[in-house]
Structure formats: structure tokens, C-alpha cells
Amino acid sequence: MDPDLFLTIGVVLAILTIPSLFSAWTDGRAPRMGAIMLIAAAGLVVAAVTKKPGGYAVGDVPHVMMSVVGRYIN
Question: pTM for this structure?
Fold first, then answer.
């Protein structure tokens, strides 16, 4: 698969993890699903960085994500 796609899915999954973790924290539950999502997001981001020669710079991430979205919308 495309490392840009891995990075995009990992970042989106990491953003979606935040409400799950806060919900579990406020309800006094163990954040199992949030932890699983966070581990999956970290794995996807690490896989993307290791598969791409030269890796990614932090400033490249928005451009990479927009190019992936544009590629799959068109």
C-alpha cells in the first residue's frame, strides 16, 4: 500500500482516539478501545515513516493528507 495512505489513516485515527479516551476517562472506565485505536494509529504512522524513503517532515503532513484525499475523491 501507499505510505501516504498509511500516514493519512493513522493521523485521522489518532484524532478520533481523543474523544474515546476522554469519554472513558470521564465515565471512570478503562480506555480499552481508545488504547487499541491509539496503538493502531501509531503503528500506521510508524509504518508510513519507515516505508517512505527519507520519511516525512512535519510540514509535509497537511500536503500529503490533502493529496491523498484528492486522489481518492477524484
Answer: 0.88
